Amino acid sequence: MDAQHGISGNVRLSATVSGRVQGVGFRYWTRDQAEQLGLVGSAVNQPDGTVGVVAEGPQDAVEQLVSALESGNAPGRVRRVEKTYAAATGGLNGFDVG
């Protein structure tokens, strides 16, 4: 994460991923990436065809997840990742797929 965000310690990513991301294994791939980075959160299909991703953990790990989402290596085709960052709120266990 860059300094302009002004957040230190654990962070919370809230992202909406658009493109061809439903029915292609994208949520499970995202969970695998997040778990490898030690992040907790979820990846959930949204009614509009996007996938909502929430991830909490160290800022460098969260940024690595964002890089993976934007890398072109995800299943399907990611067109855009709209993301916001905040201080982690805690209370999440594991990484859920919904």
TrEMBL record:
Entries under InterPro entries matching the protein: Acylphosphatase, Acylphosphatase-like_dom, Acylphosphatase-like_dom_sf, Acylphosphatase_CS
Keyword Protease: no
Enzyme Commission number, as recorded: 3.6.1.7
Gene3D superfamilies reported for this sequence: 3.30.70.100
Keyword annotations: Hydrolase
Domain (Acylphosphatase-like): residue spans on this chain: 12-98
Coiled-coil region(s): none
Reactions that this protein is recorded to catalyse: an acyl phosphate + H2O = a carboxylate + phosphate + H(+)
One Pfam family it belongs to: Acylphosphatase
Active-site residues, Swiss-Prot/TrEMBL: R27, N45
UniProt entry tagged with the keyword Hydrolase: yes
Family: Belongs to the acylphosphatase family.
Protein name per the record: acylphosphatase
Protein source organism: Arthrobacter sulfonylureivorans
